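Saturday, quiet lab. Running sequence design on the structure tokens for the scaffold JK sent over.
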């Protein structure tokens, strides 16, 4: 879960966890990209679903963050 608004992030995380889903939440695109790249390098399990905010407060957007993972 990538959401820059802490209240929204906590609420979405709680809802997802209420469904029994494991959730790892970060506040910005840089942490999101870094975390997924770290998992990939470690050959660890990657998430089944990515929930990414469209407008992130760090000037990035969710689509740009996802595009960084394709490189």
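Result came back. Writing it out in full:
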């Amino acid at each position: 879960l990538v959401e820059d608004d802490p209240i929204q992030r906590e609420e979405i995380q709680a809802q997802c966890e209420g469904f029994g889903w494991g959730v790892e939440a970060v506040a910005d695109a840089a942490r999101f990209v870094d975390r997924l790249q770290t998992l990939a390098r470690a050959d660890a399990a990657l998430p089944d679903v990515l929930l990414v905010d469209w407008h992130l407060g760090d000037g990035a957007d969710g689509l740009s963050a996802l595009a960084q993972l394709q490189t």
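Notes for JK: The chain has a mean pLDDT of 92. DSSP finds three helices and no strands in the chain. Ask whether to fix the surface positions before the next round.
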